[in-house]
Amino acid sequence: MNSNDIDKIELSGTKAKGQRPWFLQDKQTEQVLSIAMALATELAVTRERLATLEAVLQQQHILTADAIEAYRPSSAEVAKRSEAIQQYWAQILRVVQQDKEALSAGDKSMEQLQAELTSR
Amino acid sequence: MSQNKTLPSWRALTSHEVMPEANHDDVARLNVLTHLNYHLGSRVLPGVKQAFEQHVKPAFVAQQQREPETRHEIRQAMLQNGYFQFWSALRRSAMEMRHQTGRIVALRQADALSAQVAALNASAPHSLALDATVQVPANISEVDIHCQPGCYYQEYFEADVTVAASYDVGLFVTTAGLLGGLSDGGGQAIVNWLALQHPDFKPKRILDIGCTIGHNIVPLAQAFPDAEVIAIDVARPCLRYAHARAVALGVSNISFVQANGEDLPQFADESFDLITTAMFWHETSHSAMPNILRTINRLLKPGGLTLHLEQPQYHQMGLYEQFIRDWDTYFNNEPYWGPMHDLDLPAMLSQAGFNAADMFDVGVRAKVDERIFGKREAGESGEDYGRAPVWNAFGLWKKP
């Protein structure tokens, strides 16, 4: 027997057995978040493919599909990419970082500031 | 964190014959998800503690006129906090993406992998013993542990190894390579500890319970090449894959046997010098654990050692750390994680017939090639609790 009878696309993303917790107050919002994270992942994958393409072009001045598949980044490049990906995630998740900073920022609301700035 | 750490590429993993082939974009995806986990652990997670200290705890104290007294009270209060909700949603999503990515890679070449595994297994037919009568216990069949679809045991067609291969591919994403090139940092840690602490101990017969893909028992088999090693699990796809993987790595002294550690009538009393588990207990259950410990006691020779690699027990840490480590219990399909880390281990060993006074407890770290995988200190920024390769090993020497 072989795998001809199974739906590999469906099985790749199949649910783990066990009830899934939803953390955000609105389930649909969390689903949108999940989709956004998957899109972000795919954009990063595309960026990495482009990085490889550029590297290959630079090295060989010729582009073939094989050349991209066979390409292995050097350790220096891996380090560079590692840094780029860290920056990338920080960009995507800016809203969370800023929420973390706001925890201790003691920011005032515009209404509060308006009241203070116009009270005299 | 002032300095960015650079993380290794998934390509740094040691290739072996049954590891699925990952193409350019698979590797990119695995690396991006690895970095996502690292980002969540090092930059987002510290905010969860801030949210607790600065918002949730003061509100709890104001309302209850006392501090939280259990990790469960902390969890209930934190579940109402937006920052914790968001970190949790991202962490869960990252785990699901890891599994999907590993499964895409493994399923795409499911037939080739299955054939490759079958060919390697046929080259050493006497060291793999599958037994269709072995039932998958409820603690495995009721929930897919750490959100791994199909858990360790599901077969999608005859002779399928997809779940095992996908596990081998994806482990790196959660641990950022900290388990080493063959994801065997746990097994290497045991070998290293034995070499340093008990250089004269030369076990002749070794049993590993719950071996999954055999990644942690291979280093022990290599360290003791004259020993007869038996690795058991209930999961057929894992055993097939583990055996082929060991053969591919040139290891011929391990027999992989489909069996449930709760009762091993095929093995004689006092017939093993060393009995190990690695990251096993938190995936079992209250009903199975005493039976397995009793079996270990029966099988262990006087003068022999039983050693278990685990996450640290909760009583050794503060309430916040308990709470954050307990995330996996409720939100990562690890229902036994928390209850297991609450257990009184000496009492459990005593009930199984061991002398609890003989139990020892040591901290061990993964031993990996730091030139490739870098060095990570316990407690440094970036430690993702429950995911760092810093373990508590407990065990005992059975008195002769």
Structural topology:
The complex is a heterodimer of chains A (120) and B (400).
Chain A: H1 8-12, H2 27-60, H3 65-70, H4 75-92, H5 94-103, H6 110-118
Chain B: H1 24-64, H2 71-78, H3 82-108, H4 110-122, E1 128-129, H5 138-141, H6 162-175, H7 185-197, E2 205-209, H8 218-223, E3 228-233, H9 236-248, E4 254-258, E5 272-278, H10 288-299, E6 300-310, H11 319-325, H12 327-331, H13 337-342, H14 345-351, E7 360-365, H15 370-373, E8 390-397
Parallel strand pairs in B: 1-4, 2-3, 2-5, 3-4, 5-6
Antiparallel strand pairs in B: 6-8, 7-8
Features:
heterodimer; A: 120 residues; mainly alpha; flat; B: 400 residues; alpha/beta; 12% strand; globular
The amount of helix of chain B comes to 40-55%
User: Major beta sheet of chain A, specifics?
Assistant: none
Q: How many H/I helical runs of chain A?
A: 6
Helical amount of chain A: 55-70%
Protein model, in words:
- Chain A is mainly alpha-helical and 120 residues long.
- Chain A has six helices and no strands.
- Chain A has helices at 8-12, 27-60, 65-70, 75-92, 94-103, 110-118.
- The radius of gyration of chain A is 23 Å and the shape is flat.
- Chain A starts with 7 loop residues before the first helix and ends with a helix.
- With 400 residues, chain B is α/β, with parallel strands linked by helices.
- Chain B has an eight-stranded mixed sheet with strand order 1-4-3-2-5-6-8-7.
- In chain B, α9 (236-248) links the parallel β3 (228-233) and β4.
- The longest helix of chain B has 41 residues, at 24-64.
- The termini of chain B are far apart.
- Mean pLDDT of chain B is 92; it is low at 378-382.
- At the A-B interface, α1, α2, α4 and α5 of A face α1, α3 and α4 of B.
